[in-house]
Amino acid sequence: HVETMGMARRTSSPRLSYALRAPGGQEESHCAGVNALLLDETKGGLFSAGRDACVRRWSVVEDVPTCMAKYEAHAGWVHAMAMVQGNVLVSASSDQCVRFWNARSKDDLEGSKCRLVTNPTCGCEHEDYVVALAAAQNTNRVVSGGLDAKVVLWDVTKARACAKLEPGRGESEARSIYALACDASANVVMVGCTGGSLRMWDTRTRGMVGWSETSAFVGHGDTVRCLALDTQALLCLSGSSDRTLRMWDVGTRRCIAAAAPHRDSVWALQADETLTHAYTGGRDGRVCVTDMHTQSARTITKEDRAIRAIAVEAAGTRVWTATDDASIRQWAVPENISPAEVDTPRRTRRLGRLVGGVGACALRSAAAEEDAYQEAHMDDNFDASKVAPTKVIAGAPGIVACAITSDRMHVLSKDANGMVKRWNILQGKVVEDYGKADFDALIKEMQEERTSQSWFTADTGLGTVSIHLEPPTCFASEAYAVDLGVKGAPHDLRINIGEQVIKALFQTWREKRKALEAEARKSTNMSELDGCSRDGVQAKKDRLFQKLPFDFSQHPPAIMSRGENGVPWKREMNDFTGKEGPDEIPMWIVDCLLHNRLQGAETLVQKCTFSLLPLEGSELPHLKQTKLTAPRILHVAKIKNYVVQKLLDSGVDLRAEAGIHESSNSSMAESLVISDGLVDIIGNGRVLEPDMSLATICKYLCKRSNDIELFYCRRAENNEGIP
What we know:
Elements: E1 16-19, E2 34-40, E3 45-50, E4 55-59, E5 66-71, E6 78-84, E7 88-93, E8 98-102, H1 106-109, E9 130-135, E10 141-146, E11 151-155, E12 160-165, E13 177-182, E14 188-193, E15 198-202, E16 207-209, E17 224-229, E18 235-240, E19 245-249, E20 254-259, E21 266-271, E22 277-282, E23 286-291, E24 296-302, E25 309-312, E26 318-322, E27 328-332, H2 344-347, H3 360-376, E28 391-393, E29 399-404, E30 410-415, E31 419-424, E32 429-436, H4 439-446, E33 457-459, E34 466-469, E35 478-480, E36 494-496, H5 497-505, H6 507-523, H7 528-545, E37 558-562, E38 568-572, H8 587-595, E39 607-614, E40 627-631, H9 636-649, H10 654-657, H11 668-676, E41 679-683, E42 686-687, H12 694-702, E43 708-714
Parallel strand pairs: 39-43
Antiparallel strand pairs: 1-34, 1-37, 2-3, 3-4, 4-5, 6-7, 7-8, 9-10, 10-11, 11-12, 13-14, 14-15, 15-16, 17-18, 18-19, 19-20, 21-22, 22-23, 23-24, 25-26, 26-27, 27-28, 29-30, 30-31, 31-32, 33-34, 35-36, 37-38, 39-40, 41-42, 41-43
Helix pairs in contact: 9-11
């Protein structure tokens, strides 16, 4: 899979992202595929981890499951979960972090939010996606593994790593880790990797078994995707992308039984304590239960999508499944699950009980024979239409596509159901719902012949629209305050779009920070007059800026970034305390918020050079200065007004010629209207509209970024048929 969310991998740039919230109260549901499930039967709960970067806790006792809590701190897909000692929930994510949550505190359930047990900086030992976890039953330890080929043993009580297994020892290349399992004390850890590699780590002696070709657990022909280990670490079950399920004697590192209950990769696995019955979910959409004594299997259900995760109730009578569609379903396990009633030849080829000195060649030959058998017998008697889920936790349709409109202030989105919406990204809300519509046609319709400087990127990696800001590009776009609808603003007041968006996102932080600073001034007996005078200087400007359309208070998004310590984080806009500093908030954002410093903005080309000449045949004279430089957002209306004013300085009064007598106290708006009726501005043989900017002229008419030529003439002189 590919994750497009910007926080998935650490980069050198401290990017700021915000995820727009789904309208209509859909926040209680996942809005993207679910990657992991975990049952807590003592409390009647089910935990789910999704690609929307959230972990949710559900009460599944009633007929209709309800969301009891939301755990939100990860900045990327959550791939795995584990429960340690029944009170600490551990989650692992593609943001390269392992998080430790209080899963029992009543305070954590207030307001449907949960807090981290530890400081957010803890749990960052990996250098790539963390995709696997395994918890010990008898100790406060948990093991994590990821695509960096690193295995980390954590002490949950201290929330720190107590042992690590670095990649590349005793082997020619590092292998990404996709599955983990450990015994009750976390002394023995089984590690499933790419290339069909299955390995063992003894955390007591730091011994590594299977890290070399001569000591490997040989049998699988593709990535080991899921594992189960008995409490005494004598037997191990493994599921692989080679479609097989294998049982291993850990002591001898030999495969003692194998089965192939699926037509495609085995992606999820859960077994009873003795590993007698294995419940599996596969890429083929099937959920099966296999008796490992006889290697016979029975299909429980079949979904339309690949099974990403399963959770089996202790009694083995119910199984929960998760797929890519964000919904979670519960299925009843048939009572007649006895292997004697299973038509074994139709469902799985018995590979036999492989005991003793069976070599790698024999095992691989058996797997090849199984592949050939399944390809010849793809049909079976299971009828999925006769099986219905007993409970459903409905997911929200995730957003699967988005496009930025030409004004750079709106984003068009399409969800999994084909519903199209238009978002105002300056306020984080949906401004128009088109229902089911032609997404591509709407994109073309909205791409007007207008342009604004690109200042952000957008993607749908978390199932919603995520906006990404990165310096200095995020400070590249400006607009006049009057064009943003601010009444009474000076016509030459320019607003930096990125700066104001950042300040609106951190409005809560700024307010709380200001309150803390005021409290600090009181405690240090600092002059209140000094503080008031500083506030007074900004008062008028602040009142004006409050009228700007940058306001997320009604639709607060989730904000994601990483501080100077390199640790990614995600939190609600209103959850900031004002105490966060550069360790959590990137310094370039702090500079913007507190000091109005825009990192790298001085390097951005935001002006345009152009020549302003009389149109050939016009009786109007040349201006004293014909080579001009102006902001790229300058409108043609202001160029017209400039021409009229400069001609007046040269003795040509176009207003008097037209019988217009403008008072000395006329507003700029009135002057612009008057000038518009007196002259035309021509570019590339076309009369330019008053609201067209220099940037638009450069891009769409002159096809060059700078040094363009514009011409002016009396409105009455433009009778040559120039369009």
